Amino acid sequence: MFNTWLRENKIAMWLLTFIRVYVGYQWLTAGWGKLMGGFDASGFMKGAIASATGDHPAVQGWWATFLEHVALPGVNVFNFVVPLGEFLVGLGLILGTFTTFAALMGLLMNAAFLFSGTVSTNAQLLLLEVLIIVAAANAGKIGLDYYVLPYLRGLFKKEDGHKKHLGGGKIFKKHTTA
Fold first, then answer.
1. Is the full-model pTM beyond 0.85?
2. Where does residue 96 rank: exposed (0-12), middle (13-18), buried (19+ CB within 10 A)?
3. CA distance 31 to 167
4. Half-sphere exposure of 85 (CA within 13 A, CB side)
5. CA distance 86 to 71
6. Average pLDDT of each block of 10 consecutive residues along the chain (178 residues)?
């Protein structure tokens, strides 16, 4: 019942728009600050790895192993991907473009930050992103998804035995032999 309300109700659509723009602003400003001010994730990663020891570790051992053996050696990739990802998630949510995907990528980043032992606003944003994801298209109706999603659906829609593909705008017919 709540799921149907989130996906179809006009009041929910307006509420989700407010939530979407709020979450988007949080991501956009975080990403912009990192893009403009320089960003180095190595200190954050080292702190998370150090938090995996002791009587009550804040970071699970498997996650610390991932950080130590995969993320930290590839920190230059993370130094580029995290700020850009944060900025693009924010932009997508604010504009309402690929809203569900943007919220999913935001949720993925919030989960990674939580796994690394940082609570901050991550839990709050993660819960709000779950609402946006569950609401699906209703979360982006007041946004560019209103125009983008029907257009994309039309690209893949079957019409009279024809199927449209993205391959150069060509339309391929289903051939039958007599």
1. no
2. buried
3. 34
4. 17
5. 17
6. 88 94 97 94 95 92 96 96 97 96 97 93 95 91 91 78 51 51
